Amino acid sequence: MSEPAPALHWTHEGQARSARWHSESRAAPPRRVVEALDNSFSADAAYRLACEGTALLWCGDFQNARQLLQALARRVERRPRKAPAPAASPAEAFHLHRQAQAQRARVLAMLLIPLQADYGIALRRAPDVRAACTEAYGPAGAEGFVVSLRELLGLVGAHEWRKKGVEIAALGARIHPHYGVFSPVRGEYVQLVADAPLPSQALAFDIGVGTGVLSAVLARRGVQRVLATDQDPRALACARENLARLGLGERVQVLEADLFPEGRAPLVVCNPPWVPARPSSPIEHAVYDEGSRMLRGFLGGLAAHLAPGGEGWLILSDLAEHLGLRTRDELLGWIEAAGLTVKGRLDARPQHPKAADASDPLHAARAAEVTSLWRLAAR
User: Fold this and answer.
1) Domains of the chain (ranges plus CATH)?
2) 0.85 cut: is pTM over it?
3) What residue ranges in the chain does DSSP mark as E strands?
């Protein structure tokens, strides 16, 4: 029996009200909620309430709510009058950055929007978000609920990304990411898979398929059969849709599995999350992997799933090493303990804008980052 949905409680003209609460990050509903109309609060007053943990349930003009959210974001991002003490280490800088991100997310999540049962918004100048909500939440239910405006705008942005798609040079085609599935905007890791010498074109496993981009690259390179796995229902649906759109649905079979499918293959590919830290939302599972669970699981099971003479391709950034969250010796130790040897490695420098952004608090680590395709074999 499923647990009842959490509820949000507030008062309207002296009467107790409640509604279902939904949060993709699984945040608990705010304990204190006040209704807010246009000009009910100044941006400074709204910011103080949000910092204190009081949520604003918006009942006015939708576009005014968007403007207030922008005003709250500007206040969150104001530099303190006194510069903070420099971090003692890259790891401390990373943890302080994550704390600041979490605090920003908590404050901005305090502006709430009610959704009707069909995902409509009964506010003036509200956009039609029903398609975006259906893609993210699934078919509409029997009752409405309340979400943060920040989450709702994220759904709308993901809906636009899904329609437009991301151009993948190695494919000469677009990949269309679904909400909650990490977009392949960093082309260097895709290009590494496109360039590495194939040990075989008979069969490949793609562990953690995501959008399906690496399976598509392998199939386009001539691999006759690809078995792709993932545990996330959104990723499974996204990969199947992308591969069908590219005409590769018959050559790539997408399976729900924790890491490996049954059997062995001459090529096993995995692009695990790169940073060993706790994810705070579903989309972050593609970047953060607490305790390097997926990385260590892939390495630990790889030898048992490689055909004789086969290769495992581990696509991994060394950002965690530059942040002091994992050492190269640890990685090499896990490879050796798994009964694997390194046959070779292809490296690529990142091309994303943050690598050149000197104002980014993690700039030094990002500027030094290298993404590698490790060619591994069983000893």
Assistant:
1) 7-160 (no CATH), 166-378 (3.40.50.150)
2) yes
3) 7-12, 15-21, 32-36, 54-58, 111-115, 145-148, 166-168, 173-175, 204-207, 226-230, 252-256, 265-270, 306-317, 340-348, 371-378
